């Protein structure tokens, strides 16, 4: 499981985050994105080193890059003074990598941060690259591309669900289950809007296929997430963490995260194909 999780994290660090930053419409975040590999490559190397000083230092360097994104989020909020649903989503996306990096530094040091064992810290890293960054960003983009009220639901429930899952780590399994329910509702709404609105109005076959895959994958992966959270809270039989990484984690990373970002990059560079040409405002 450790090797698979590290490969998923590398995808998030090296591909999903830098590609996604170009879609935020934020100049500071895009500027950090242009230098992102200077932070992400050392962070990726830290995954494959034994726990210790060198691995911790490389992870901390990656953490510095994620801190720049969090600062960009704070500056964006101060500048726009907006908590519109799409803005909430993009702010969540910009802050989430710093949560992942904090867990990574602790795990690479071998320190049970806040009492969490190293396995949980290890899984927190991909969670906040994909559920935190990729999902929140896509929810914001979807919200901006539709006039349907469901867009607002998606843009708010994905960040809220991600936050509730994080809080559930500190409270109990029932709180984490509540977060999983809210996050699943948001992700399924993203999938529905992607399938009905974006895919249906996209004439480019490659872009349409990427959108279709990203929407379809979410149906299965979030059902798995609900199954796991329900099992943890109630004691009912449920998939173990290794099986979740191989199914939910891998499918979300490739089927949703990668396909979504690639599709939105294609939409951004083909204005005639975009359902609504506006981006998330800077």
TrEMBL record:
Protein name: YndJ family protein
Biological classification of the source: Bacteria, Bacillati, Actinomycetota, Actinomycetes, Kitasatosporales
TM region(s), chain numbering: 53-74, 86-106, 126-143, 150-171, 177-195, 207-229, 241-264
Organism in which the protein naturally occurs: Streptomyces coeruleoprunus
Keyword field: Membrane, Transmembrane, Transmembrane helix
């Amino acid at each position: 499981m450790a090797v698979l999780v590290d490969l998923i994290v590398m995808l998030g660090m090296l591909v999903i985050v830098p590609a996604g930053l170009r879609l935020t419409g934020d100049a500071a975040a895009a500027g950090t994105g242009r230098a992102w590999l200077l932070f992400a490559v050392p962070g990726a190397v830290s995954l494959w080193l034994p726990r210790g000083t060198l691995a911790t230092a490389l992870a901390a360097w990656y953490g510095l890059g994620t801190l720049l994104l969090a600062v960009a989020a704070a500056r964006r909020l101060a500048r726009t003074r907006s908590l519109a649903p799409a803005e909430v989503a993009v702010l969540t996306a910009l802050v989430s990598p710093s949560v992942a990096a904090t867990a990574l530094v602790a795990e690479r040091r071998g320190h049970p941060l806040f009492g969490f064992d190293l396995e949980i810290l290890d899984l927190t890293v991909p969670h906040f690259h994909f559920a935190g960054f990729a999902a929140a960003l896509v929810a914001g983009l979807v919200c901006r591309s539709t006039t349907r009220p469901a867009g607002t639901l998606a843009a708010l429930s994905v960040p809220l669900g991600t936050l509730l899952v994080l809080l559930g780590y500190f409270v109990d399994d029932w709180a984490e289950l509540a977060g999983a329910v809210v996050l699943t509702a948001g992700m399924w709404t993203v999938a529905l809007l992607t399938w009905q609105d974006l895919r249906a109005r996209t004439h480019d076959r490659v872009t349409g296929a990427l959108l279709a895959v990203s929407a379809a994958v979410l149906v299965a992966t979030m059902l798995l997430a609900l199954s796991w959270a329900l099992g943890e809270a109630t004691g009912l039989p449920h998939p173990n963490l290794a099986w979740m990484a191989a199914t939910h984690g891998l499918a979300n990373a490739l089927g949703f995260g990668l396909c979504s970002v690639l599709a939105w990059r294609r939409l951004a560079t083909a204005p005639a194909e975009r359902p609504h040409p506006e981006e998330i405002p800077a």
